[in-house]
Write a structure and sequence with these properties.
The structure is a homodimer. The first copy, chain A, is 38% helix and 20% strand. Chain A has helices at residues 10-21, 34-44, 53-58, 72-79, 109-116, 134-139, 156-168, 182-198; strands at 2-6, 25-29, 49-50, 62-65, 86-89, 121-124, 148-153, 172-177, 205-211. Chain A starts with a strand and ends with a strand. Chain A has an eight-stranded mixed β-sheet, with helices on both faces. The mean pLDDT of chain A is 97. Strand 9 of chain A pairs antiparallel with strand 9 of chain B, so a sheet runs across the interface.
Chain lengths: 212, 212
């Protein structure tokens, strides 16, 4: 698949590198500098490229949105028309100081995002796992049991694409349901983040949800 | 430990039975009928008793609160003085139709509860796992890896008690932090419940959160 990374920061950089390793055609965009983008593409290898958000999005089958919440409107404006595209968002609706969610309970970041791009197909994924664990999970791919990664969305085809990409990275995709379930998934992401970053013991935290 | 069950419904009944099996002195209270309470105590065995909420709470080291959210004020009024006691709450702040949380994002049921009984020590636990899985986990106790059960609270001693009871039931207790983390734990409970009850495949769902 051709994957546009909108937001090539800590998480977008890692996910893009792993998608490239998994055999996808990745274009990195929207970092602090063109140097950063070039470095990410060189490190990722496997034909990874750099471009503007519009260039990245234009030919993409899938757009990964991995910007800080404060940058959502900016990056969407730069990306141009996203009609009909699968948008996988791992951007949590954090306050500027990153201490809390700006929205929850009666809505979610994923729903707010979907309202901004109603012609696109938003799937919420990859927010529930710290970036620190991504390479380890990828390298252990195939080993059972794999850690779970939950996702949710309203478009069946977009969700199937997300599930495929989740599995490509070594996780066991778990369909949590419709996009509004992000009201539960986003707080869960912060629960996992709190365990990873605030409780001691290291951030390489993953989870598995299973039937007995 | 002497454990008062306030709310001997589906979850309270199961947890009480398992606490009794684990060797604790359990008193069931607050069900629809005295018959129901007597039946629960007989089934639980191991010296389990029945009583009024006040009788149950009076001599208890730990109070398990397992009522529907609409009954919180009623059961607290009946229980009497809970000063200094460890209160483990698995009561999610659900609407009367059980379709959504009544509070979230900027507060949580656990925090609302703690505000009602400021002299007691509230720990949020046992809401993140469906009742259907409890007996299976208990029977598999000692088998590794055990499923995780997260808990949170502000009082160190009360949390240690909760962790001990969680382990007694076969789970691996995971301290998620202070009581306000219930803002994340409660939505996570609904995420697990949605996976258990709305996605097909059976409700015997457990989870494990771990460092790699």
């Amino acid at each position: 698949m051709r994957i546009a990374i909108l937001g090539s920061g800590l998480i977008g950089g890692k996910l893009g590198a792993l998608f490239a390793r998994a055999g996808h055609q990745v274009t990195f965009s929207y970092a602090r500098s063109m140097d950063k983008l070039e470095r990410l593409a060189a490190e990722a290898g496997n034909g990874a490229r750099v471009g503007s958000p519009a260039q990245a999005a234009k030919g993409a089958d899938v757009v990964l949105l991995a910007v800080h919440w404060s940058r959502i409107d900016d990056v969407l404006a730069l990306a141009g028309d996203l009609s009909g595209k699968t948008i996988i968002s791992c951007s949590l609706p954090m306050t500027n100081d990153d201490k809390a969610l700006t929205v929850g309970h009666t809505s979610s970041g994923a729903e707010k995002l979907a309202a901004k791009i109603p012609q696109a197909h938003v799937v919420s994924a990859f927010s529930t796992t710290p970036g620190e664990v991504l390479f380890g999970v990828f390298e252990a791919k195939g080993r059972k049991p794999a850690p779970t990664l939950v996702y949710c969305g309203d478009d069946r085809k977009a969700k199937a694409i997300a599930a495929e990409l989740i599995a490509d990275l070594g996780f066991d995709p778990l369909d949590a349901g419709a996009l509004w379930l992000a009201r539960y998934v986003e707080p869960f992401s912060l629960l996992v983040a709190s365990i990873a970053y605030d409780r001691g013991g290291g951030a390489e935290v993953s989870y598995r949800i299973e039937r007995r």
